Amino acid sequence: MTLTISSNFDAGNIEVVSIEKPNNIQLKIEKDTHSEFLQWFYFRMQGAKDLACKFNLINAGEAAYPEGWDSYHARASYDRVIWFQIPTSYKNGILSMEFTPKFDTVYIAYFAPFSYEQHLDLVNHAQLSSLCRLETIGETTQGRPIDFLRIGDDVSNKKKLWVIARQHPGETMAEWFMLGLIYRILDEEDASSVSLLEKANIYLVPNMNIDGSILGNLRVNAKGVNLNREWTTPDIENSPEVYYVKKKMKEIGMDFNLDVHGDEGLPYNFISGIEGIPSFNDKLSKLTDSFMRNWKINNPDMQDVHGYPKNEPGKANLNICSKNLGEEFKCFSQTLEMPFKQNDNIPDSVAGWSPERSIKLGESLVVALLSIMDDL
Ligand SMILES: [Zn+2]
Fold first, then answer.
1. What's the gap in Å between 315 CA and the centre of ligand 1?
2. Residue 105: which pLDDT band, with cuts at 50, 70 and 90?
3. Does the active-site annotation cover 337?
4. Which of 2, 256, 296, 348 counts the most CB atoms within 10 A of its CB?
5. Measuring CA to CA, which residue among 299, 309, 307 is closest to residue 266?
6. How far is the CA of 116 from the centre of ligand 1 (A)?
């Protein structure tokens, strides 16, 4: 059977340079649409059963975060359900993966993908619950609906909690997290979820960057725009995803915001806060501490030893979502980062950080939120 590699499918990304020698397959990661960023890859190889293959991503050194390749392992799957790590090394700007497939067809990706069809399944399943409504609040630049879930009874004196994910489309763990959160919050047999919805309404955007997800981008939308730098002045032409979501936020109001991401470099889950926004105060500082204390207890995959350095007072970049919204709504607003590698505190040598762990972290947000409801 001839060896072939393709990426012409939802979220696919690879350029084949040379495939003549299975032990030296040369590939390039394609740049994001209208952008210099590159890091996300996802391709299908056929005809390599029992063949010792070595893939070399020869432009890995030009990636957005080359430090992301240190101690990193690519993911592979035969059925696109179970993803496992394969031996991967990074040297002299080349990311190499060595692997002998057990079946004719294998998929290899930067992280377990979350496809547009899976996204549609998720939001349409959610709307079956009497607690949830699915709305379209605008269109992406390529004309796809921006899906928005309203959960609860909309009674106005309740707290208004927002969770949005996947502004950076290659950070697929963010949508796995949303899947866990959505299934748990809609579970009417779950006392924590029921209690949370007695006190709050919940507003969710499970995928902020649908076009970028389908295009196989790491960081930008179809216009080449990094949505997480657009929150001060979102543009209806170039960043409609942020424009329409922020408009809806102003219409509804906000007492809490979590913006869900993945981090290429650090092998931990962590929160990036709003210490640097002008209106940061004692109340927000105490909320930050108690939110983290409770979340860590509920799910030890969360930690606060490792993370980004905190901004100095007044030094936050207000173009970034969580900081912009914290300032605009004078509310508790955070960014969550999950690893592409693994959680080094609780390592998993087979799967690394995985969809399953992301889902469980999403589920555990329900109790972390419940613990701070009376203090918001
Ligand atoms: Zn991100």
1. 20
2. very high
3. yes
4. 256
5. 307
6. 18
